[in-house]
Design a protein that fits this description.
CATH class: Alpha Beta
Distance between the termini: 84 Å
Number of domains: 1
Helix content: 40-55%
Number of strands: 10
Number of helices: 13
């Protein structure tokens, strides 16, 4: 009997050591539609992770908002029903206030400034999320957002007559529009299309690719050709779920999401330019403000930033890093 028990115990030990280490399925929700560049690249990253970890880590995506809006998704992460999410900075600002700092209006002049700032500030944002209990897998540039509308918007006066949407909990957007004399209408991103359909809202600020991917372009008629703000998207995991993976598997997950993010960053710039042209081809009328009108809009942005700083909407180290790097970048021009 003793020999039999030893044999059984040895067999169980052998079976245990043969089991995959840190086996896990990472469930990640996103509002990005299936078939979009973002989803295609993230699915490819998931397949590479499966191969690199020999099946120990699988990534399952829930695209198109099927898991609910940002508030619902974050709640499901806290409950353990999801392990992660892909959300924009404005959607995550309720969790970490610096998440949307890149979206300060008229902060960047061009993509070169964005690239210079992100090299310095992205690591700081990652640390900020870690302190909130989340591990950032990737930060990707969604692109510059433009005002798009049903009515023709050519001035602040026109805008003040509109029904302007802002993402729910987007402090930057709300303050910016209020500084311009507009009382915005906050809605979750997932409800914006319905708002356009029903007439609850008639003006949005979004990237060209998002306008098409989310089908908003079917309701919009005008576009103001002046980049309003820069939008970034984050993919993040609950820190506890991430740390349950082995060190080697965590490295594989990080590496493959980083590859996917680099591909998305490159593709988004090209896609946004193509989408901008496509919006014109399907009939959106483009208005480019003259220097005087553009200066008025930028003044609104400056007042909004002053108020955000006074309200301590951002942490001093992150804001200081952006301002310092921008000053250095522009001094070198």
């Amino acid at each position: 009997m003793s020999k039999l028990l030893k044999a059984i115990a040895g067999g169980l030990l052998l079976a245990a050591t043969a089991l995959p280490v840190s086996a896990a399925t990472l469930k990640i929700a996103s509002l990005a539609p299936d078939g979009s560049t973002w989803m295609n690249e993230m699915r490819a990253a998931g397949e590479r992770i499966d191969a690199a970890t020999e099946g120990r880590v699988k990534v399952k995506f829930y695209p198109g908002g099927v898991m609910g809006n940002d508030t619902t998704v974050l709640r499901k992460i806290r409950l353990g029903q999801l392990q992660g999410a892909a959300l924009t900075g404005s959607e995550l600002s309720i969790l970490y206030k610096d998440a949307q700092i890149y979206s300060v209006p008229f902060l960047f002049r061009d993509d070169a400034e964005v690239d210079a700032i992100r090299k310095v500030v992205d690591p700081m944002l990652r640390e900020g999320f870690t302190a909130k209990g989340f591990h950032v897998l990737s930060i990707t540039g969604v692109g510059f957002a433009y005002l798009m509308s049903v009515p023709d918007v050519r001035s602040k006066t026109d805008l003040q007559k509109g029904k302007v949407w802002v993402p729910q909990n987007d402090t930057i957007a709300e303050i910016t529009f209020r500084e311009g004399g507009v009382e915005p209408i906050p809605l979750p991103l997932s409800d914006a299309f319905t708002g356009l359909q029903t007439g609850l809202i008639d003006t949005v600020a979004t990237t060209p690719t998002a306008a098409i991917a989310l089908q908003w372009h079917t309701k919009l008629k005008h576009l103001v050709d002046m980049p309003l703000s820069y939008v970034v998207g984050y993919v993040m995991l609950d820190q506890k779920a991430y740390m349950k993976l082995s060190e080697a598997d965590r490295a594989a997950v990080d590496a493959e999401f980083a590859k996917g993010a680099a591909n998305i960053d490159a593709a988004n710039r090209s896609d946004n330019q193509k989408a901008f042209e496509a919006l014109q081809e399907i009939g959106l009328k483009v208005f480019k403000p003259d220097a005087e009108e553009a200066a008025l809009w930028r003044d609104v942005g400056k007042r909004a930033l002053d108020k955000l700083v006074a309200d301590k909407a951002f942490t001093a180290p992150v804001l200081g890093a952006i301002e310092g790097q921008l000053a250095k970048q522009r001094a070198a021009e």
